[in-house]
Amino acid sequence: MHDVVIIGAGPAGLSAAMWCDELGLDTLLLEQQEATGGQLNSIYGSIDNYPGLRAANGREFFERFSERIDAADFDLWTNVEIAKVDLKAKRVELRSGEVLQSIFIIIATGVRRRKLGIPGENEFAGRGIIESPTRDREMFAGQDVCVIGGGDAAAENALLLAEVCPTVTLVHRSRKLKSRREFSEQLQSQHCITVFPESVVTKILGTEHVEAVEILRKDALKPFQMAVRGVAVRIGVEPNTELFEGQIKLDEQGFAFVTSDNETDVANVFAVGDACNPLAPTISSASGDGARAAKVIASRLQQKSS
Ligand SMILES: Cc1cc2nc3c(=O)[nH]c(=O)nc-3n(C[C@H](O)[C@H](O)[C@H](O)COP(=O)(O)OP(=O)(O)OC[C@H]3O[C@@H](n4cnc5c(N)ncnc54)[C@H](O)[C@@H]3O)c2cc1C
Q1: How far apart are CA 11 and CA 6, in angstroms?
Q2: Which of 51, 92, 109, 277 is the most exposed place for a label (fewest CB within 10 A)?
Q3: pTM above 0.70?
Q4: Which of the listed residues 7, 18, 34, 39 should we mutate to test ligand 1's pocket, taking the one with most ligand atoms within 8 A of CB?
Q5: Which residues' Cβ are closer than 6 Å to ligand 1?
Q6: Helix-strand-coil percent breakdown of the chain, rounded to 5?
């Protein structure tokens, strides 16, 4: 029996675990990947907006972030596959057959990139699907590319790719881009970027590698093909909360509803970080959520024992 089981070892889960340890709670942190750090592992640009700590990329940030965490004394299990969670009973069953029991559960499962679900998207992973314009810069230099999406991530990716690619085509569904003004203005001033509004990419085509995309523009009867060597899909994120469906209140996109103490609608079950924060996901808010949940839990345990 643990005081707390935390699911997910990104910034939110790691911060919760560090605080739980500091507050003397018996804590087990479960991570499905081999590496901890969550989305930090996919940040290839600099991080300049975490108070008091700057880093050239997510990996460097994580190393400094985890200096304190390495010194903590909580249990960490990585490569863990959770088969089932009973939030009311605070029971977590692992695919390996092990059953874990705790008094509190903290959900810190974060988000993943949303997929389009079109032909070619999975097939060309690593063969023309652009994971990161910073990391993959050399690979796509001199190639024509397409970015799908109309928000900040899409606009930023298009701008980064425009530094090295002869043409960048930005395809998005809406009439107007949703990206911040600064990005939208920069897009307009870049001659190599063409924006196709009210359009969707219906297929990614190729043989060994991406060779073209099929684009359908609003009001057009037929799609047309455009030759590109790289495609970046940036249509937002979705929360990793399927495990908890039907047990806690989620919004229509799957983000967990929480109180100001980060508690879900099931007593003693907390959600922290991006999994409950669709509007302002950041490393600092995720870390703050983790600290808050740990402190609320510690004070409840203290009240119980006094
Ligand atoms: C390219 C990029 C750039 C960014 N730049 C910045 C920036 O400059 N500044 C900033 O503040 N933020 C930035 N962010 C956002 C920031 O990384 C996130 O807000 C933060 O990582 C959220 O932390 P989290 O712990 O809530 O979730 P995550 O980082 O998503 O971590 C969740 C963890 O839970 C694990 N998990 C999921 N499901 C399960 C399960 N069933 N069982 C066990 N483990 C599970 C995942 O494997 C993952 O390790 C950026 C994000 C990206 C992708």
Answers
A1: 12
A2: 51
A3: yes
A4: 39
A5: 7-13, 30-33, 38-40, 42-43, 47, 49-50, 80, 82, 108-111, 240, 243, 273-275, 281-284, 286
A6: 25, 30, 45
Q: Is the pLDDT of residue 27 over 90?
A: yes
Distinct helix (H) and strand (E) counts, the chain = 6, 18
For 38-62, the pLDDT digits (tens) are 999 988 888 999 998 899 999 999 9
Range list of H helices, the chain:
11-22, 58-70, 137-140, 152-162, 181-189, 283-305
pLDDT, tens digit, 9 for 90 and up, residues 93-130: 999 999 999 999 999 999 999 999 999 999 999 999 99
Q: Which ligand 1 atom lies nearest to the CA of residue 48?
A: 8
Distance between CA atoms of residues 286 and 45, nearest Å: 19
